[in-house]
Design a protein that fits this description.
The complex is a heterodimer of chains A (about 280) and B (about 300).
Chain A lengths: L1 H34 L23 H8 L1 H34 L5 H13 L6 H10 L9 H22 L3 H9 L4 H12 L1 H17 L2 H6 L8 H11 L5 H31 L6
Helix pairs in contact in A: 1-12, 2-12, 3-6, 3-9, 4-6, 6-9, 7-8, 9-12, 11-12
Chain B lengths: L11 H34 E2 L9 E2 L3 H7 L2 H33 L5 H13 L2 H11 L5 H9 L13 H28 L4 H9 L4 H12 L1 H16 L3 H6 L11 H11 L3 H32 L1
Antiparallel strand pairs in B: 1-2
Helix pairs in contact in B: 1-13, 2-13, 3-7, 3-10, 3-12, 4-7, 5-7, 7-10, 10-13, 12-13
The chains are: A mainly alpha (about 280), B mainly alpha (about 300).
Membrane topology (chain B): Multi-pass membrane protein
Protein name (chain B): Lactose transport system permease protein LacF
Main location (chain B): membrane
């Protein structure tokens, strides 16, 4: 008897989760299926969720991949995102390590600032940051995006990594100091490797932040050749009199691929990195 | 070593190394975050000069008065508040439910995790366009509602009205946010000691009882964390509105940040935009403090 009850509730759980999962993926599948329809059939009425078998085409993808600017935008996004992730990881891990382990003047104030700047949404600072970028002559420059992205993600990354480092037993540090190691040695041999899951998990967040960032890149980049993918996709959307949904969605699907790969490769760090990180219990 | 576990570096070499580790972070903070915050405050009190009078003129609280007496600002504020009040609890409840269910599964945990997380990793620009396409007047949803299940007569012009446009943005916000909540709550759930549940089972507690008396109290700090982060995210809503309605019709669907952006970059009113941003920042700090206080008081009340 009890066996049967468990199985029934389990079935219900699978059913509920599958229903939710369907809602999660349905819009994505619709995007994919629209990208596989002939571009002219996009205002068909009645609309079809799936293209009919004879109608499936990759012409939208061919069009996108034949355009040189797609590759430029793609590489721009990749470059900016990878550099943002690397710099943010190095800077945040150093900050987090020092705040978690050492007493120094201004320590509490620094951590207070980390928390406080997490509260202010990035876009709210867009006006003074625009003035700053103009002053530094880094508007309309691809690499000029990076310092701003890094600065945006540092607070959250530092907060998460600090929580993780605090969970690493201090005896490990002590052993290194006993052996004559310095602060750098502990950082390199203990803090960085052992907080790997937290660094990996915030790095995925940071990659995503840079990869999809829209308002700032829209504001400071003017040249087509310096645009990142989100701006290119949004621009594609506005550029024609009536929207070429097939092209827009083909480009969207293509831009999703790197994120998907990274996410699937690193997804096991995701829960683990959050678990022992800044949020406990 | 102090009682909080931090220690003071003794040797000069180690102090120097700590300083070097802190330097890049403090530099980035100072230049790209702290300076802009100061500049924001400065800009809100000064009118930037033009042509013949290039010096900035001190205008006191004039920009703040302009913001607070601007009807569109209040419309945008209402919209943002509504967006936050609707999307935050909806995402948290759905995400927590998904996390509890996934946590109880004997298999396929990873599969569900990936599926629920898909909307989170898809960029705002893309999902906004997908939703705009689905909610198009001649789009799939209207077809489904009026022709397939015949729930509505004719097509609804979702994107042509204030409440229609906001509804689409809010549905998008919830849909995209559930996965993040699921992962955050799943991390917290896996930290709850299993012994608590076992002893509750021995006492004859059912699943619902366990949820309210063990699970919820155990994940309180995560709930607070999610609440604060999502409230900030709610006030930060920008890309979806910009892509889906662009504030139309007649600025009725603007949120505080899209309106700020419009004033700054379409009308060149930087001083107004700075004052607006500062008001938003103050509201958010106030809300965050309030949320922390409320949760803390509840702790002490126990």
């Amino acid at each position: 008897m009890p066996m049967k009850r468990i199985r029934y509730s389990e079935l219900l759980m699978y059913f509920a989760l599958s229903l939710g999962g369907l809602v999660s993926v349905l819009p994505m599948i619709y995007m994919l299926s629209t990208s596989l329809k002939p571009n002219g059939a996009l205002y068909e009425y009645p609309p079809h969720f799936f293209p009919s078998k004879s109608n499936i085409t990759v012409e939208n993808y061919i069009y996108i991949f034949q355009q040189q600017k797609f590759y430029i935008n793609f590489i721009n996004s990749l470059l900016v995102s990878v550099l943002t992730v690397a710099l943010a990881a190095a800077i945040s891990a150093s900050l987090a390590f020092c705040i978690a382990r050492f007493r120094f003047p201004g320590r509490r104030m620094l951590f207070g600032l980390v928390i406080a700047t997490m509260i202010i949404p990035g876009t709210a600072l867009i006006v003074p940051q625009f003035e700053l970028a103009t002053f530094l002559h880094i508007t309309n420059k691809l690499w000029g995006l990076i310092p701003f992205y890094v600065a945006w993600v540092i607070p959250f990354s530092t907060f998460m990594i600090k929580g993780f480092i605090e969970g690493i037993p201090r005896d490990f540090d002590e052993a290194v100091y006993m052996d004559g190691g310095s602060v750098f040695t502990v950082f390199r041999a203990i803090a960085v490797p052992l907080s790997g899951p937290a660094i990996a998990s915030v790095s995925i967040f940071n990659f995503l932040t840079a990869w999809e960032e829209y308002p700032w890149a829209l504001t400071v980049i003017n040249d087509n050749a310096k645009r990142t993918l989100p701006i290119a996709i949004a621009g594609f959307f506005g550029e024609h009199q009536f929207t070429q949904w097939g092209y827009v969605f083909a480009m969207s699907v293509a831009s999703l691929i790197p994120v998907l790969i990274i996410f699937i490769c690193f997804q096991r760090y995701f829960v683990k990195g959050l678990q022992t990180g800044g949020i406990k219990g | 070593m102090g009682k909080d576990g931090v220690m003071e570096a003794k040797s000069l070499k180690n102090r120097l190394q700590i300083f070097l580790l802190l330097l890049p972070g403090i530099f980035m903070f100072a230049v790209f975050t702290i300076y802009p915050i100061g500049k924001l405050l400065f800009m809100s009190f000064f009118q930037s000069g033009y042509g013949s009078s290039p010096a900035d003129a001190f205008v006191g609280f004039q920009s703040y008065k302009m913001v607070l007496s601007d009807r569109t600002f209040w419309v945008s504020f209402e919209n943002t508040l509504l967006y936050t009040l609707v999307t935050v609890p909806a995402q948290m409840a759905t995400g927590l439910l998904a996390a509890v269910l996934i946590n109880g599964l004997p298999r396929f945990q990873v599969g569900f995790r990936v599926i629920y997380y898909l909307p989170v990793i898809t960029s705002w620009v893309i999902v906004s366009l997908v939703f705009k396409y689905i909610f198009n007047t001649e789009g799939m949803l209207n077809y489904f509602l009026s022709q397939v299940i015949r729930a509505t007569e004719g097509n609804i012009a979702w994107l042509d009205s204030r409440w229609g446009g906001l509804t689409v943005a809010m549905l998008l916000g919830i849909w995209k946010g559930v996965g993040w909540n699921m992962v955050v709550f799943l991390a917290a759930l896996q930290n709850v000691p299993k012994a608590l549940y076992e002893s509750a089972s021995i006492d004859g507690c059912g699943a619902v009882h366990k949820f309210f008396y063990i699970t919820l109290p155990s994940i309180k700090s995560t709930t607070l964390f999610a609440l604060v982060m999502l409230t900030i995210g709610g006030f930060n809503v920008f890309t979806s509105i910009k892509m889906i309605t662009d504030g139309k019709p007649m600025h009725q669907t603007e949120t505080v940040l899209t309106w700020m952006y419009y004033k700054a970059f379409n009308e060149g009113q930087f001083s107004y935009a700075a004052a607006l941003s500062f008001i938003v920042a103050v509201v958010l700090v106030f809300l965050a403090v309030l949320q922390f206080r409320t949760m803390k008081n509840r702790d002490e009340g126990d």
